[in-house]
Design brief:
With 536 residues, this protein is mostly helical. The chain has 19 helices and four strands. It folds into two domains: 156 residues, no CATH class; 248 residues, no CATH class. One of its GO terms (molecular function) is diacylglycerol O-acyltransferase activity.
Length: 536
């Protein structure tokens, strides 16, 4: 029977001045090196005979085959794709410069002083409606506290009739409060939309004004809905209101949250959903703020340059194809525009959701920084829409979808209503600043509904092929919500909505064509088939 002999470690000098321990283990009296050499000889032959050693000594699979035991790394292919993208885009940059020269100039960025004046007036007046919402809630809170006190006194007297009467009377006032909030929010949005459409000509500046108005409008709605629920819980609570509200709210439970300081924080917070209390970080990291600011500034410049130098010539060259209804030419323009628009869209996503919102959150010490998920890996559109823009997703789920389902509306109907509402907001954010209500942005959102139903089965497929197919359909049909930057001419402002491969570049071309047909300085295009009776 073979015996195993284990030798103790021996110290041997290493190269240089260092020394290291070498542990030599002998098995059956043979060192490991000798065993390894013997195995190699048995497998391939002796190194002495160079022409006869065995090359094919076992069954093996190709590393790219599906049955390979160990998957190889594809980092090299990723590097190749990066090199090809850089080289191809460099070629396009050279071709663009040879054809058009340098189109980026600061002289074309000047805007009408009236546009600036109307923009700042609207920007400063819009938060007044937040103040109106605070005054409505302050009055409602005082009224609720007085009625709750009267109800408690009735309970102490064991006057059940008076208690129920006070409760019914209190709930009857909720309609008055809801009407006041609805009038305040609607008036704000109507005034902002009217001013933007008729008195701010530049579409870039108009986009920022309309976007700010819509954001404040959504915040006013969330403030009203949330306080309505907390007021309802406050009135109904026979014990502690904390039993039905999140523990996070306890330090500032209703009605202690109805303060200007609390509302002012919500106004600036990077969220559309109101809470009395948010998770907060302990301190501000000024180096983090500086990095996010530099990212946002650099990416904004990149988007501006890309729109001015590359997108605008493509859009200008698409006007004749649309006027003549040249479908092949339109498709070629759409596909050509998709490359630069995708670059701008991805840059805009990073600038807004990663750089700007994180910067704002750090300044306000806002703790929840999950502004997006890994939407780029989505295998279906449903997961994309729930992860790409989480501030809007949270608002829609909390204040639109969930309340409808809670009232017995079928989930599928609630989904359709949610997308219709989102489509109206999209059209408001695109059609109003461009002074052309075409319905293209609305249709783009509505068409997401059948695409979601189409890709839902793909998400349930097992294996990589199902996810791959779903991810490809996602990239072909996804719709972005990015707002771009200013440029040398108002034409370039129309690229503030960046798009992917099919639907989004087509929408950009449609709105650009409508703008040129209505406001173009030279050679205004004619609408095809007599559509769009444009006022000159």
């Amino acid at each position: 029977m073979a015996t195993k002999k284990v030798q103790t470690p021996t110290r041997r000098p290493a190269s240089g001045h260092a020394h290291e321990d070498h542990l030599t283990i002998s098995i059956n009296g043979s060192p490991p090196e000798r065993l390894h050499q013997q195995e190699k000889t048995n497998r391939q032959g002796s190194d002495k005979y160079k022409h006869s050693f065995a090359v094919h000594f076992q069954s093996r699979t190709s590393c790219l085959s599906s049955d390979t035991p160990v998957l190889p790394s594809y980092v090299g292919f990723r590097n190749l794709v990066g090199v090809v993208l850089v080289a191809s885009n460099l070629r396009l940059m050279i071709e663009n410069f040879k054809k058009y020269g340098l189109l980026v100039t600061l002289s074309g960025s000047r805007m009408d002083p009236n546009d600036w004046r109307n923009f700042w007036i609207l920007y400063l007046l819009t938060p007044v409606f937040l103040l109106n919402a605070y005054m409505i809630e302050a009055a409602a809170a005082r009224y609720a506290k007085s009625k709750v006190a009267e109800r408690k006194r009735a309970e102490e007297r064991h006057d059940i009739v008076e208690r129920e009467r006070q409760k019914r009377y209190l709930f009857s006032t909720w309609r008055v409060i809801a009407i006041a909030h609805g009038f305040n929010a609607t008036l704000m949005l109507v005034i902002a939309t009217y001013v933007v459409y008729y008195y701010i000509h530049n579409p870039g500046l108009a986009s920022f004004a309309e976007l700010h108005a819509v954001i404040v409008w959504l915040k006013v709605c969330s403030y009203a809905f949330t306080n309505r629920d907390m007021r309802h819980a406050y009135v109904n609570a026979d014990s502690d209101i904390g039993a039905v509200m999140p523990a996070l709210y306890k330090p500032c439970a209703y009605p202690k949250n109805i303060t200007l300081k609390n509302l002012s924080y919500f106004w600036w917070a990077p969220t559309l959903v109101y809470q009395p209390v948010y998770p907060r970080t302990e301190r501000r990291r000024w180096d983090f703020i500086a990095k996010r600011f530099c990212e946002f500034f650099i990416l904004s410049i990149v988007i501006w340059l890309a729109c001015a130098q590359y997108a605008v010539p493509l859009l200008q060259n698409s006007l004749d194809a649309i006027s003549d209804l040249n479908l092949v030419g339109i498709l070629e323009r759409v596909l050509k525009l998709s490359t630069i628009s995708l670059v701008c869209w991805l840059a805009g996503f990073f600038a807004l959701f990663q750089s700007f919102l994180n910067l704002l959150a750090e300044v306000l010490r806002f703790g929840d920084r999950e502004f997006y998920g890994d939407w780029w890996n989505s295998s279906d559109l449903r997961s994309y829409w729930t992860s790409w823009n989480k501030p809007v997703t949270h608002f829609m789920k909390r204040h639109v979808y969930a309340p409808m389902v809670g009232r017995g509306v079928p989930p599928i109907v609630a989904q359709i209503v949610t997308f219709l509402f989102s489509g109206l907001l999209h059209e408001l954010l695109v059609g109003v600043p461009t002074h052309n209500i075409l319905g293209v942005a609305f249709a783009g959102m509505v068409l997401q509904i059948p695409l979601i139903w189409l890709t839902d089965p793909l998400a349930r497929l097992q294996g990589a092929n199902g996810k791959l197919a779903g991810n490809l359909i996602f990239w072909l049909s996804v719709s972005g919500q990015y707002k771009g930057a200013t440029s040398r001419e108002s034409d370039e402002m129309l690229m503030r909505r960046q798009f992917c491969f099919l639907g989004q570049p087509f929408a950009a071309i449609c709105y650009f064509f409508a703008w040129q047909a209505k406001f173009g300085a030279h050679n205004r295009p004619e609408w095809p088939l007599g559509l769009g009776d444009v006022k000159r």
